[in-house]
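request received
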Amino acid sequence: MSKIELFELCGAERDRVFSPYCWIVRYALAHKGLDYTTTPITFSEKEKIAFSGQKLVPVLKDGEQTISDSWDILHYLDKAYPDAPALFPNGDALARFVKHWAEGTLYGLLAPIVIMDIYNHIAPEDKAYFRQTREARFGMTLEEFAAKAETTKAQLGGALEPLRRRVKESAFLEGDAPTAADFIVLGPFLWARGVCEVKLLSDDDPVRAWRQRLFDAYQGLGLSTLGYAA
Amino acid sequence: MSKIELFELCGAERDRVFSPYCWIVRYALAHKGLDYTTTPITFSEKEKIAFSGQKLVPVLKDGEQTISDSWDILHYLDKAYPDAPALFPNGDALARFVKHWAEGTLYGLLAPIVIMDIYNHIAPEDKAYFRQTREARFGMTLEEFAAKAETTKAQLGGALEPLRRRVKESAFLEGDAPTAADFIVLGPFLWARGVCEVKLLSDDDPVRAWRQRLFDAYQGLGLSTLGYAA
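response:
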C-alpha cells in the first residue's frame, strides 16, 4: 500500500480530472517515480480535505506530512526525495518566470474557451457553486465570459511564440528530459484536454509536438484519464 | 589599454546607442567587470565590422577572438572569464525561454511605438537604408507600422505581467543579483530609452522599479548615454 495520497478535483465522472494544478502534481509524482493513490473529489466534497486546514486541491498526504498548493508540493518532493530526478534541476528562479507566464498569459486566454465545458462536465451538485464563484470573480455571467473565446483563441497562437521557439531548440524546456517547468506549462493544456473538444494547436505547431511528448511520457500519463483528443 | 573592443550601433550622435543587443553586451561586460573600448558605428559604416565576416552589431573583439551575435558573446564571456560573476549561473535553458519571451512578445509590442523615433534619431545617411529594409520586413510603410502603436501600447501592460510577478518576488529575475536573463529583457527597454519619450511604465509598476534597479546598476550604466527619462 502506498503511503502517498493525492486529493484532486474531478468532474461528474470520477475519472475526469481536469484541475491543472492537480495535474502538475500527478506529473511531478510520476517524474519522481513515486507510487500514490488518488482521491478525486468534487467541489461539494471539500470536507474530505478539511484535514489539510484549507479548502483547495491539490492536497498531498505523505505519511505524516500534509502539503497543499502545487508549487509547495513540487518543492516538498524535491526535498523529501532528493535521489529521484530533480523537478528543479537548475533552481527555481527562472521556473518561476515560466510559472508566471503560464498564469499571467496562458490561463487567461484559455479560460473563456474552456469555461462552459468545465461547467458542463462538473457534477450537478457543483454547478450552482461554480457559477456563483466564477461569475463573482469575472464580474459577468459565464456565458458573457465565454463570448470572449473567439478573441482569445485568435490571440493564442501568437502568445505561445516563446514556448514554440524554445521547444524547437530542445525536446523539453530544460533540455532532453521534462522538468517541473514543463509540467507547469502543460497544466493549462491538461485543463483543456479534460473537458474541451476545441482544437487549440495546429498539426504542425511545435507546441503540439511538445504537448504530445509530455502526454506520452510516464506511460502515457496525460492520456490516462477521461478527456478529448483535441 | 583595454584589449576588449565592442562595436555597436549609434544614431546621428555617436553617444546615442540604442541597439538592444549591443546594450545586452554592455551589461554583460560590466557584470563581468571587464574594461573595454567602444566603437559606435552608423548603419552606413558597416565596413568597420567587415573583419567579423558578417554585417551585424554587436561585434566583440577580445585579443585574437572575434565574436558576433549577443547570445554567443554572452556564452563566450562566461567561458573566457569563468572567475568573474556568471551570466548564466543556473544554466541557459530557461534563460532561453526568457529570451524568446522578450523576442516573441516584447519587441513586437514596442516596435510600433519606437519605430519613428529610431528613424528620427539615426544619421541622415542611414535613413533611406533603414526605411527600405524595415518597410520590406514589415510589408508596409514605417508610418503605417507606427499606426499600430496605440494598440500595442494598450497591450503592453498585460503582456508584462509575467515579468511583473517575478520582480515582485525578488530584485532580479534570478534572485538578488542581475544576470543575463535581466539584461536580455532590459534590452527592449534600453532600445526605447535611447530614442523614445513615450512613458511605457507607470510610476507604481514593479517593472519600472526593476528597470530602474538595472539602469542604476554598474555605476548607472543604463543612464550613461544619450536618451530619455521616460
